[in-house]
Write a structure and sequence with these properties.
Length: 201
């Protein structure tokens, strides 16, 4: 699994080779303890009712150039659906969830994703100026995704992430939080399980 370290020492799953570190991770389909429920789910398969338990969802979808690589890394055929269908699947998932759903991405991505509202934000792991969109909720001022996730963890109890990767969202857990996490890649679930077992979140 290709990961990169953020400036504050957190781990992030990346499709880009530059500066990435290959880590050996076991593929896991499902994992649960008192803090987290994590499982494999392909967003193309629609809404998953295990997210009913979440108060809010925060997610960092694949960028258009990374989408093909992420799908290949998960052993999926990226040509079966394509990137615009991926964004449509996120839109539909957010609508069905019906509670606050925050999603980061480029301004171009927001045009297709069509959230209820969006505003600029710096994406902490990359340091890039991009956007955050919201469905079923409201936006609040935050300079970057790091402080945005921290605010969500303070405000809500159960946090969901449908593209959990190496668990950047999960790494912000406060003592009162529980997490519902999914990803198309079983290695991501293996990574989360390992972090949880080592008490790293
Ligand atoms: C930009 S990364 C998210 C990184 C993550 N926030 C982290 O902490 O590492 C995008 C994630 O979306 C996942 N993904 C891509 N296509 C997917 C799909 N069809 N269904 C579910 N997850 C998908 C990838 O496996 C990857 O983990």
């Amino acid at each position: 699994m290709r990961t990169m370290k953020t400036k504050d020492g957190r781990t992030y799953f990346t499709a880009l080779k530059k500066g990435s570190i290959e880590v050996d991770v076991k593929a896991v389909t499902e994992y649960e303890n008192e803090k987290v429920k994590a499982f494999v789910h392909d967003i193309h398969d629609g809404y998953d009712s295990r997210f009913d338990e979440a108060d809010v969802i925060y997610c960092e979808p694949a960028w258009r150039p990374g989408y093909v690589k992420f799908m290949e890394m998960a052993g999926k055929d990226p040509q079966k659906y394509g990137y615009n269908k991926y964004l449509k699947a996120i839109h539909d998932f957010a609508k069905q969830f019906g509670k606050p759903f925050y999603c980061i991405g480029s301004v171009a991505m927001m045009k297709i994703l069509q959230p209820d509202d969006s505003q600029p934000i710096v994406i902490t792991p990359h340091g890039s100026n991009d956007a955050i969109g919201v469905f079923n909720g409201t936006l609040f001022d935050c300079p970057n995704t790091d402080s945005f996730i921290t605010e969500l963890c303070k405000k809500y109890t159960v946090i969901g992430d449908i593209f959990c990767g190496a668990g950047y969202t999960f790494s912000h857990a406060l003592p009162h939080n529980r997490f519902i996490l999914s990803d198309v890649n079983p290695e991501c679930i293996g990574f989360i399980a390992k972090e949880a077992e080592h008490g790293n979140c």
